[in-house]
Amino acid sequence: GEDVEQSLFLSVREGDSSVINCTYTDSSSTYLYWYKQEPGAGLQLLTYIFSNMDMKQDQRLTVLLNKKDKHLSLRIADTQTGDSAIYFCAESIISGAGSYQLTFGKGTKLSVIP
Amino acid sequence: DGGITQSPKYLFRKEGQNVTLSCEQNLNHDAMYWYRQDPGQGLRLIYYSQIVNDFQKGDIAEGYSVSREKKESFPLTVTSAQKNPTAFYLCASSISGANYEQYFGPGTRLTVT
């Protein structure tokens, strides 16, 4: 079955780097996503990586994918107080009906200390 | 401005009443989804629809119903059969038929007492 796991909490000081880790189980995942959720709001797509890539960089965000270990990480450089939010890892899998679905982790709450 | 709207933001109901949550999108997306979010539980898929007049059960469909009469709209009804309806409900949409990212609405917080 599909399962995506993340640690629930992370606390960092402003200006430091944050690394949020995620493990997934479905080796047929084609895309893996990172979403950000601010309090009381919907999810905002931050970035995604295709499963045949090892790394993707987008400004302060770096995504690393180790497909052998089914491990995904999101690094936020120079973390700011505005980065405080819950970060969800998600894998895209094909359902029995032939459509793509997302399976989400439980989310990592990032707290940035000024 | 393209996007997904959900209304209302907060909804209160008495136990035993059905309630319908609205979701509208003007992104011209074929696929739409409903998720439920509970604290510490992440998102769980309730129903999804890949095309008008067709929808599929997700992981936790019991006690919920949906309709997809128009491409833009995918309302979710929380019925009295849902044992623990109090939660944050999120609607999303995406391009169908391929592996595209989902765009989320702002959510509706439902409280049933």
Task: Describe this protein's structure.
The complex is a heterodimer of chains A (114) and B (113). By secondary structure, chain A is mainly β. Chain A contains no helices and eleven strands. In chain A, the strands form two sheets. In chain A, strands 2, 4, 5, 9, 10 and 11 form a six-stranded mixed β-sheet that branches. Chain A is globular, with a radius of gyration of 14 Å. Chain A starts with a strand and ends with a strand. Chain B has 113 residues and is mainly beta. In chain B, the strands form two sheets. In chain B, strands 2, 4, 5, 6, 9, 10 and 11 form a seven-stranded mixed β-sheet that branches. In chain B, strands 1-3-8-7 form a four-stranded antiparallel β-sheet, with no helix packed on it. The radius of gyration of chain B is 13 Å and the shape is globular. Classes of the chains: A mainly beta (114), B mainly beta (113).
Instruction: Output the number of helix runs of chain B.
Output: 0
Q: Find the count of extended strands of chain B (DSSP E, 2+ residues).
A: 11
Instruction: Tell me, briefly, the overall form of chain A.
Output: globular
Mean pLDDT of chain B: 92
Number of strands of chain A: 11
Share of residues in helices of chain A? under 10%
Helix content class of chain B: under 10%
**Elements of chain A, N to C (H/E):** EEEEEEEEEEE
Low-confidence stretches of chain A: none
Low-confidence runs of chain B (pLDDT<50, min 5 residues)? none
Task: Report the mean per-residue pLDDT of chain A as an integer.
Answer: 91
Please give the largest β-sheet of chain A. 6 strands, mixed
Structural class of chain B comes to mainly beta
> Most extensive interface: pair and counts?
A-B, 25 and 26 residues
- What is the CA-CA span between the terminal residues of chain B? 36 Å
Determine the structural class of chain A based on helices, strands and strand pairing: mainly beta
* Estimated share of beta-strand residues of chain B: over 45%
